[in-house]
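User: I'm curious whether this sequence folds into something compact or stays loose and floppy. Could you predict its structure so I can see for myself?
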Amino acid sequence: MRWRVKLGITLSLLATVFATTIVAPTPALAGTCLYTACNGSDPHGTGCDQPEDQIWTLHTIWPEIAGALELRYSPSCGAAWARYTNTFGVPGRVEIYGCGEGFCLVKWRKLVETPDRVVWSPMLSYTYRVQACVLSNGNRYCTAQF
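Assistant: Here's the prediction. I'll summarize afterward.
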């Protein structure tokens, strides 16, 4: 009979330890990619756009087509992307350019043609020289390069 009591106590202790291990919270990661591993990834989907990450807006312009074009940067992911607030819902696309030694890359996303919608490009590594652009109605508007 004693062995059943000891077994019961042992199983209860193991269950408590196991349950505590499962429920224990894990710290949130700032982002799930780093530098060139971020190329083409969504800043929101990877967590690189989180406020805890202290996102930097490197440059903002207000094109003639209205809206705000931002070149954004995540220090913890080492990546940059373009973000555009489409004030009047114009058609077009938002782009991020990145140039390294002897090559350039571009990533883009189509604008949502709904007023006041925010659209962001996929990311590029900040090891490149980067620039954000918005194209609409045959015109290109770009931030400075960083």
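Summary: The beta strands are 56-61, 68-74, 79-86, 93-100, 103-110, 117-120, 124-125, 129-136, 139-142. Residues 35-142 form one domain.
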